Protein 1
Amino acid sequence: MKCIFRRKGLLAFLCLIAILCSRFQVSGQQLTNARGTVIERATQKPVAGASIYIKGQMTGTTSDADGNFHIQLPANAILVISSIGYKTQEIAVQEPANLTVYLEQSAESLGEIVVIGYGQVKKGDATGALATLKPDPLNKGLQVTPQDALVGKIAGVNIVPGNGAPGSEGVIRIRMGASLSASNDPLIVIDGVPVGSGAPLSSINPNDIETFTVLKDASATAIYGSRASNGVIIITTKKGSTKGSKPHINYASNFTLSQVPRYYDVLSADEYRKLFAEKANAPADFQLGTASTNWQQQIYQTGIGNDHNLSVTGNPGQLPYRLSAGYTSQNGILKDNNYQRTNLGLGLSPKFLNRHLSLDINLKGSIERERPVSNGVIGSAITFDPTRPVYETYPDSTGLGYYVWMNGGKPVTLAASNPVADLELADKLDQVKRSIGNIALDYKVHGFEDLRLNMNLGYDVRKRNYSETIPDKAPSMYTSNRNDGRGRLLTQDDQNTNYIFTAYANYVKKIAPKHQVDAMAGYEWQRFWYKTVPKSVVKGVDDTSVPDEDVLYLLSFFGRVNYSFGQKILLTGTLRADASSRFAPRNRWGYFPSAALAYRLADEPFIKNSHTISDLKLRLSYGQTGQQDIGGYHPYLASYTISTDAARYRFGNDWLNMYRPNGYDPNIRWETTGTYNFGLDFGLLKNRIIGSVDLYSRYTRDLLNRIAVPAGSNFTNIIETNIGDMESKGFEIALGGTPVKTTDFEWSINGNFTYGTAKIKKLNTIDTENNYVKTGTISRNDFQVQKVGETPNTFFLLKQAYDDNGKPLEGKYISKDGSITSSEQDANKYITGKSSRVPYYYGTSTRLRYKQVDLGINGHGSFGNYVFNYQQANQALISLFSSEKVSSNISRAALERGFAQQRYFSDLFLENGAFYRLDNITLGYTISKLWKDDAGLRIALSAQNLHTFTNYSGVDPEIYTGLDNNIYQRPRIYTLSLNLNF
């Protein structure tokens, strides 16, 4: 492999030298002089700082304070004059000239078309809270999954990236989410196809994405009604080019190295031997090993990866097309962890019937192959005795050559398994094949062009095959499975299909010079189906797994009316009616209305004549959205499950499997969220600075919740039902601009800040001070609760007692009456008022360009949330030696703390989770013209996850659940990128 990389590197270097040499040619053309003044047409005032450059070259200048400029250029050249907030001008210069260039204010940003639910709208005409992001090709770092492009980029959208496993998806929350037990994931729509849950984005190639549109308030999302309570993310993929018939080819590649940012600070072998002799209280005949093993170094590696993407676009015979192919292979920082993805895509956008009929075809397929690893090896490597060797030989091939904990010549079943063996002996393969696509027809009716008819047929088909094989006598087979060394074979085949049909009519009519109506009405049908076939094989044990299959239908009618008066007063009203087969017929339908008002003040005299404010729009909206995504597909129906072989009934000489009834609620119904939103969009200094501010208040009723019920009242002690209310409030600020823009130098900067809070208002039929629902579970211990008056996922712990010197007293806590107690019962725990939910989060992004060199820096952070360091709470001096005669390592912090036993519920381990992460720094060089004008090359170096600024004592504070336990660290990644266009 090293030889291959050397050859590729030499080839790339030689190509770069040849390209650079071809760039520096001496031109013998005679130059002419051009002088001029740049004037704003509306005010007749000079424009300072306007860029004036020769088209097709990097040569240029800028206008001075009086709008004047001077430039030398070849004969018959074209001058390009541009400035932020103005339309760009091109002027042909054939001889020495004195020019007066008039620039008109540009409404380009306001006229930009953004995708909304079932249609499009000009950005300046939008009445709801929405944000559009087009990934910056020059400042993005390594993006393995599409959500990587959104991290820290949009106010109100908090994305906790996936763990360190390559290809892992993180958590997306828009305005914290509106539910408790039901899904808080936003609805994701890809080219008009709302996709289901279960890693909906991992199979999509980020290089195929053109734009993200995030709908945040109910006015924007209510048109989707069902599943829109938690926001909507609309993804539009790249289309074929409509310019020219010749094909345009783009090739992009990334070569990466991934490293572990930091190790857990545990004792070395020598330190451990010394501590063991002093504190372990082991019998005299117990001997430590003679090895010095750094178990963390044994399980981690430097991960090598590469990513290749090829696309071809063209427009032969007025048939715009785009073909794309991508391949990603990334090794994780844990050994034997690998992720591969192959993508193919096709897009066609022809027009027929004199351009009245538009056809849009999008087809995408992917194959993902992952060799996953268990996070349990991380915990094992942290605590495994450093004096033990990795490899050892035992009689009868026990352990297959790896060290195994033995006692009396037999493996210890309650000991930790050898983490290196767990990685190298387990053969796991998770393969997902997915195809997603749609055919959309849009017909502008002949003779009645104000009316458009649209139909969309879409599908999302996913097949997953998982297999796991562990051989007989592997170390882990003595500590799990049957605990007797017998190997294991697990397989599971999953199939998911999602079909959708949408049809709507759109009528746009300008009634009078200042009045315009845009009305839309439609129908939608969607079908979800899944089938799961699990199988478990253990020698001498019958497989009792049972296939599972079910189907879900959604049926909808929807409509929207937009009214505009003079492009200043904008009104929007929507209504959607949804039916879900999750609910009984009497509760099946939910109705979700919304209304919004926007007032554009840009044309008012006090704004129009302002030199500071260039755009201003006020927005006010209210709407309702629904939620039905909880548990199985039919929680209202009585159903039965076949028993396992451990719960059979004897009938004569036969043992029969029985069917047991499941819990259900026949009255379960829609969860409903109502949202008020007030927004302000603005532009300053001719839109050199643009931004928005949003304030919202949201109330969710009839929460879909999992609650405990009295014994005997149902067939189980926990059911899914509607109970509880929750209120949330917040505000969002987004700000961006270009402080400096000249021909040679440009600096852009963007930032956003979000505050959001949520309080549970009702949780049970009758709420009392002592009512709460436990959550946040690790090893059957619950560390969080849901309680009325508190933020969801509030920590429920014991208040640690300290001595006069501030040192924690082991096993001593402050009870509710202020006395000191040793009891760790729930009665002595308190509501900490601290939650894992993130109330404050922000993102920053900046890019600088000087001629052909660019530098981009991105980062994001949060504060106000808390993390429980279970990794530390689980370590104490008692861990040094167990009754099973097993020795284990501890951290240096546990040694300094000096606790003899684990104190899992002490708030000593509850820490502030505030951080700021330097996501990536990218340095690039662009060659705009290679062998022809439209050929270009960009070379970039980037470093990702460079540093995290935090006071958290663990390895990483960015944990969505707030529970730090065996976290697969996000790696530090170094990337070499090449991007070739021709």
Protein 2
Amino acid sequence: MRSAVNIAVHGRVQGVGFRPFVFQLAQKLSLQGTVQNNMDGVKIYLEGEKSAIEEFLTDLKTKAPRLSKIHNIIVEDSELKSAEAFSIIESDRHGTSMLVIPIDSAVCDDCLREMNDPEDFRYQYPFINCTQCGPRYTIIDELPYDRPYTSMGGFPMCDDCRKEYEDPTNRRHHAQPIACPKCGPKVTLLDSNGQVYEAENSIEVTIRLLKAGKIIAIKGIGGYHLSCDARNEQAVATLRKRKNRPNRPLAVMAASIAAAKEFAEISQSETDLLRSPEAPIVILKKNRRYPLAESVAKGMRTIGVMLPYSPLHYLLFADPELSCLVMTSANPSGLPILYRDDEVFQYLSGIADFYLVHNREILHPVDDSVVQLNNGKLDFFRRSRGYVPDPFTTEQDVTGIVGFGGQQKTTFTIGRNEQIFIGPHIGDLENIETINHYRHELDHLLKWIDIPKTTAVIDAHPGYQVRNVVKEYDFSEVVEVQHHHAHMAACIEEHHIPGRAFGIILDGTGYGPDGNIWGFEILYGDAAQYERMAHLCYTPLPGGEKCILEPWRNAAAMLIQLLGEDGVRLAQTIFSDKEREINVLKKLIEHNLNTVYAGTCGRLFDAVSAICGVTKVSSYDGEAAIQLAELVDENNNFEPYSFDLQKEKMMMINFSSMLKELADDVIKKKQISLISGRFHETVVQAIVLTMDELLMKNPSAEKNVVLSGGSFHNRYLRKRITNELQARGFQVFVPESIPCNDGGLSYGQLAVAAAKRRS
């Protein structure tokens, strides 16, 4: 029996070879009709035998292209139009956008095979791509995703490329970035003055320069990297000096999994992440051999590794002697990623020796995503290239809500119907360049996603820059959300947790309604509201920001506040070269001058790191805590130090006795890795005991727990706290698809506003 249907497919269905897939499927089943991109996905008109249509719908769901992600399929009966064939028709650009914006994807195996085939006309072409790989989000100017509205619009296709592009049976049918050596972008090697150094054999010459120890700025998919030979200590040290990045670990790109295994331990799950279309940087444990330059990740037991994800990257590894490259973002410290060709010579002058550039414009920069496997689950440090702006689905209408994020590791989040779009990693809003970058990316996504500006959501901190940014937009209302409630709500929303939950939120800084700095919190509630149940006791930060930059000051202040004259003695013994400064800190605390009070996990870790002599002065955010955590093996067991739990209406954890015992161990020159392990376990046991007490006081409380805040990147804390709570019958949830740090804050802000709207 012959029948007809109209099919609407929503989700990630543009720029992923979906129309050719539909065309070939219809041809196989002898169906007639049309397929068309439009502003809310893909529309299909289908007519033919009813059984064939049913088979088509089954295959549509189960055999779609690997980069596609179908959110829903709507099927409606239609009148027969007596179509004689099946065809792909021109996109409809009218109406309100409901599109899922295509993401950038690592080069696929099919393209790599062609690139390495001397008989193929794209042999060694650094911009080879197809519908299953290549740039997407970074080259889009307008929607829907068609070539004229991308930065490839200025490259007219040659006859060979056009033939593939127009062939519905070809892998490159409507692959918008399609190109070849005759008609596509080209690479050029420039010297430090911006003059052409080599045009014809630019990649070969770049390889020779890298082997000779030179530092090359390389234009990639989402921005510029600074690169050098990761085995060359002098080259890496020079890069650090020039970039003024003395200690922060540098990411590396390995030629292959085999090359990465020369210096890192890699599980099968980590291998799958490295080889995935998203191709993130994966934090791996160094192995015992570790032949790379020591200063790539000095003092670390881990290293950030990625595989080549563009054809250009693969070509740079043509020489087997060059198997691993430092590949770090080219932006100077504190500035957003560099991606405009006219900016790199200004900002990288005196840093890069040469520049490997190309003439395909980057319209939207994206940093590399950074992940690790933490207690068996995915843990995002940074969610950007390969993942952004792919939406999350939600169970409520979030249209018109925009979360503006915080001050550090900033992102923004936009709600449309039952979709939540998290923008790319922006960075710290501490200079005009980063703030302008934030505005630029927010404006584009707001235009593409096309929503009424109903509710802007900001952090409750009165000094965050987003307060000024939000004034530039015409929202009907502005809602403030407490920092740690946003962290808690993000995890609740991600996992669609019903009812209420405890939130154990450990991080560095969050403004509390009492005017103090929170960051070691146990909350109870849901996305709409919360109650603070317990926290770390407050200690002073005399000099404010200076205590964060110089953790020894924070440590001394904590000892003085918690242990009195005994603490002064301990501080003067441990920081023996700072006696005068310690006396000044003591007076500031006594007279409450230029002093704020904080109870945060980040500042606690900073203080212990300084007391242990690990990091007394930080050169990057989180250095003290990271270096202290690197000393601890999450698979070991440690005896905790003592601590006190003050069981008042709101419980308070006091680590005075722990600090006294720990400081004494340092003075006695006990092994620092053991001290760090005991400290970590003390934090675990303090939280677990507090949870036991809270459950006794609140026996009807639901036994859901979310763990969030940047301190939960710490492998030991996440594993031990999860295991201890699960042993007590709690169901434990952790962020897996969004960062637990402030990169997930905007998502949580939106979740809070949506829940309040619903309640």
Protein 3
Amino acid sequence: MSDANSLLPRQVADAYVDALIALDPVTGTYLGVKESSGRLPDTSPAGQEARAQLARETLARLDEAERTPGADSAVERRCGRLLRERLTAELAVHEAEEGLRAVGNMATPAHEVRDVFTVTPNQSEEDWAAIAERLRAVPAAFAGYRESLQLGLERKLYAAPRPTETFVGQLTEWADTGEGRGWFEDFASEGPEALRAELDEAARAATASVVELRDWMRDVYVPTIEGAPNTVGRERYARWARYFNGTDLDLDEAYAYGWAEYHRLLGEMRLEAEKILPGAGTPWVALAHLDEHGRHIEGVEEVREWLQGLMDQAIEELDGTHFELAERVRRVESRIAPPGGAAAPYYTAPSEDFSRPGRTWLPTMGQTRFPVYDLVSTWYHEGVPGHHLQLAQWAHVAADLSRYQATLGGVSANAEGWALYAERLMDELGYLTDAEQRLGYLDAQMMRAARVIVDIGMHLELEIPADSPFHPGERWTPELAQEFFGAHSSRPADFVESELTRYLTIPGQAIGYKLGERAWLLGREKARERHGDAFDLKAWHMAALSQGSLGLDDLVDELSQL
């Protein structure tokens, strides 16, 4: 690296990406770095500290870079501001030793180790040779993770018991998928015959390490943390909320906003429910009716193809009218998620060179029948015009930004806020005039409002307002949160349980959907006021999608100026 005094913030940011990939090959694989395919990160306390030290050194370089001539340009300023905010938030989480109790039903080091295999290149014998090497690295990665959790136990930094029990169940499923072999063995069975013995041996060792981790979690970790709280309290919650939202939130104001959205959406849902099942009583009675009698797709492969068609149609009809899409951004794939994960659909971004396209993932949870009403707006969210258009556009314009802004600098509330804005946009554009689909969209919006209410409410043990139809005056608990969520969602019981476990696993993340959407809508409103009749929604969309990531602190200001 050249002398720090000669670097600009974007160069510091991109040097950080290179250095982090060397420490974290999982990140490298998601970015499409072929050399990462055979390795896994050090998940031990030493590995966590190495990444934190890189962040500290990068912040010191950024201090110097921001004094370099040219650092005050808009593009350099925006990148430097993002890099400083993200690394500072990440260090706050690390220094609170949250990595020593990272247990739950998603987003743990163990999930990262397993999930990276689903995006590792596997088209050639050379690819599979790297996969075999990565499989051989699984036991060490799980051992490092266990070392981190053991240190957490010694320091009395306990994970929440409920997500821990769920995690033990997931490990059991990974160890035996029902065919007498584990998930890694299932995965390796798709490899070439020339590497069969090598892949099978490595996969068996990986499965054995899953069993070892599962047994330790069950026999040592779970009994030790018995009686620990499932919620995190205001101080830890505020730290995580900063991490996921890129701003220091007024949590009480955000809680009140969640309730305001709840009441607004409930009124709209009742109107749509009357069109479907007059006299239904509640919108969720009408949604239950749709579960049985509404339009649906039969078959797992059939629903995958249908979702692909939905995204393809959205691209064809939105490109040139409300967006201007590069050819490589137009490609997105629908996939079925591997079993043993959380119940919510998700999206994975394309590799930097687009050799691996963006992909949406549907967890089937054993189902073969899929009602349409709760899929349409969800795929506008996960695919087009939601996550895919934003994250693929970031990759497309990375050369004009910085590699960091287009990849690692992502702020959850920015991305989830855009995706929820995308659902609303499709409603505004008339794609959800069908009563079934519109009620499904409103149900999804209600779920995001309920997330703000219960995620903040239960972790801070806030009081339920007097005008609530649900337990007014009582204080939130995880049990009340699950009851409330189940009563205000069309989702099945296993989904609701998975969702509440998710909120206990990653506090502060679930509120970013609604709060991020609010920021996107406010930014658009201010830009429209600024331009008046000359406001061009397509131009605004493309400028907004091409500015890279920003935390909510900065998002409204930047969107307003476009």
Protein 4
Amino acid sequence: MQKRKSLFFLALLVVMFIPRVQAQKITLADVVSKGTFRPKTVEGLRSMKDGLHYTTLEKGGTEIVKYSYKTGEKVATVLSVADLKIDSLKNITDYEFSSDESRVLLMTDKHKIYRRSFTAEYYVYNFTTKEVTPLSTKGCQQLATFSPNGERVAFVRDNNLFVKSLRFGTERQVTFDGKRNHIINGAPDWVYEEEFEFNKAFAWSPDSKKVAFMKFNEDAVPTYSFPMYKGEDPAHMKNRLYPHDYTYKYPKAGEPNSTVEVYVYDIKSRTSIDVDLGTDTDQYIPRIRWIPNASELAVFRENRLQNKLDVLFANPFSGDTRLVYTEKNDRYIETDFLDNLKFLPDNKHFVITSEQDGYNHLYLYDFSGIKVKRLTDGDYDVTKFYGYDPDRKLFYYQAAAESPLRREVYAVSLDKKKKYKLSEQEGTNDAVFSSGFKYYINYFTNVKTPMYVTLHDYRGKLIRVLEDNAALKQKMADYQIPQKEFFTFKNSEGVELNGWMIKPLNFNPNQKYPVVMTQYSGPNSQEVLDKFSVDWYSYLAQDGYVVACVDPRGTGARGEDFRKCTYMQLGKLESDDQVDAAKYLGSLPYTDKNNIAIWGWSYGGFMSALSLEKGAGIFKAAIAVAPVTNWRFYDSIYTERYMRTPEQNPDGYDENSPLNHAAEIKGKLLLVHGSADDNVHLQNSMEFAEEMVQAGVQFQMMIYNNRNHSIYGGNTRMHLYTMFTDFLNNNLKK
């Protein structure tokens, strides 16, 4: 017995004197450049024609792998780049199968133009002959797309539309007037691409006999130029002595837009007919889309104020159009209407999302424009429409029904007697359905859970876990990571706002901590969402800051009135709410009200600058990255949607412009911009800087050479976030 006691105390002493492994600290490189806490996901997902299998892009884009929906297990490697033995094809960026899956279109060597546009090299692989051939040898292409029968590929090159016959290997040029900064065929201009959120402006008819395309005439659109220097990563050696001016068409608020025409090209006759779009040319054509039986082409037509949108059906042989549906709104129509409108396979009905009752809901209409039924009900927003399953007569959609902070996946029957909640876990859910809607893959995350990807049948039954990020969870166990908490408070007008907060590690409620506020605040945006992230905010909290975010009025998933109350006065209510949020945070017993900073990027940069001005004495410091400083400088589609034109609403443009309140700045400001920002032009920061200089306001400013709106490349991001961190450390007392 005595011997056992001795052994016990000896073991206890050994345990007591073993050095304890301390939790690792998050480094700035972890969250900025290394991607240490970046979750894995399932990428390049394509449902196959049979609806029983899907493919993914794996091993760094070198393999296309086929899986079974029924089991979730790998069936085969469909294609391996190594087997193709082509030096110029080292990996696949994206891919598309032909309708019979006998061929696959492979994209490689992708080069970005703007946010969604790019050029690339495409190859066609034939699974029957095992041959791989370049789509074209006459220059890089854009937007290559199989015809529905798989016999041809349409693509854009140098602003012209082409059709390649795979059977004969011939390349036919459809348009000949394409010219940079003049005419674009088959692809959108800059402002359409950015604000109507698409990059392909042509569509094959379902019977493969025709190609509808849009023609943009940019002649009347003013140009904007910025210098491109030599730079590094990448280096432009031709600019090493003399900078080169990059010039492109950019319509600012109130300025002329491109005029847009729609044509239908007939493959057999090699002729095009133009579609009747009405007499008004100062309008938008944000989408074209064929109805399922190819008998008519749907053309979306929207007025310049974006509060009236028509759906026209065009005869593809004559170009004549008839009005099928009109959506009107007292303020504006959100862009999600465009992609949520879907035609049903019966060629008699379509589904839209509309705010007719103050919330975004699903409605069923027939082709005569008569409302058949409202499909969803309640004081919540439907945020995405996935589609309709004709076999089970179910409509699938995503909604923020339980909380604006979360997203769920649902199915509802036509008679609304059956409604299923398919997502079981509380957080942010999104689904990708198989062809035929027999299966779906769910992408789930919340503040405590990295991306969790699961395979389900159409009723929601779990079949298999595809990605659980177990390795990331294990890695996170080695770190002390501060947790995100949600909160609400009421602003000075009694409106309840949602927020999240990250408290410092080893939080002491009796200590006073400096506060860093982050936000974006733009219309229908959301930063306060139940989703996972370990990022710069985690790093700051680890370093002794309280980090908080508040979604102000004007943000999403809280109904139309909340979302659109900022109409005609962008910045006013949002900045009021950020000032109120700072006051609320400063009132907490564990925060230092004399050491509060606010920062943001793009719309968030606009908000940081304006809040610093309006919150003089409340904010000690602000960081404004790529800010809009007067909406007169920004593009026509986005700005006029929320503000109308400067001529119609001059006070709305000027009263909340940071340019006009520069003298009111009391705190420290760091102003940052990329010199090659094609979206929010450097002009915004330069004019703002001049106003501060003339008002005698001292500030810090950093211009990143040749960087666009995202400000990245080489060591840029590490430099950027090191500068942010140093600025906060130097100006807020910890």
